[in-house]
Amino acid sequence: MTKRSITAQSVLWLFVLFQGLLTGGAVFDALVLTPLWAGSPPQSVTTWSYGAIQGRFFLPIGAVAALFSLFLLFTARLTPPQCRRWAVIAGVSGLIVLLSEVLFFVPIQMKIQAIPGTGLSSEEIVKLANRFVIWHSLKLIVGLTAFTAGLQALAKFNSPDAV
């Protein structure tokens, strides 16, 4: 195995590790935390007293996962041909998760979780909470796609089979 191949495989392993942590956290968030604060808006939002607690986990893990998504895209060309497509799918999906988090989910959480709906009407709170829940499911699917594509790339890394 060449030095370039070892580098690519290491990046792939680290991507899968951090994307797995991120995806597991997103599943926990979707099944446990989100129903607590968004279960019956606006009351569940305005009585939420814990702030945007998910940030303590998602900020560091998400940042590292995003870095490895970028690294994976740059090193995908160093992977064997049979896993290159899966590595690119994994990296792109990982970046989509990061961008959606930064551009869509965090702003909503800041409005209705960090300062529990302060300054918003009941209708606005309901609309934002429902939007968050619906789109969170899609983000979870994209995150699972990133994770499983990364696993598929790893599985094919040393395989002589062509895709």
Describe this structure in words.
This protein is mostly helical and 163 residues long. It has helices at residues 3-38, 43-46, 55-75, 81-114, 122-156. The chain is elongated, with a radius of gyration of 18 Å.
List descriptors.
elongated; mainly alpha; 5 helices; 80% helix; 163 residues; 0% strand
What's this model, at a glance?
The protein is an all-alpha fold. The protein has one domain. It contains 5 helices and no strands.
SSE arrangement, N to C: HHHHH
How many structural domains can be distinguished in the coordinates? 1
Task: Give average pLDDT, whole number.
Answer: 92
Q: Stretches where pLDDT falls below 50 for ≥5 residues?
A: none
Q: Indicate the structural class.
A: mainly alpha
Distance between the termini: 20 Å
Shape estimate: elongated
- The total strand number stands at 0
Estimate what percentage of residues fall within beta strands.
Answer: under 5%
The description of the largest β-sheet is: none
* Radius of gyration from the alpha-carbon trace, in angstroms: 18 Å
Total helical segments: 5
Helix content: over 70%
Write the layout of secondary structure elements.
Blueprint: H1 3-38, H2 43-46, H3 55-75, H4 81-114, H5 122-156
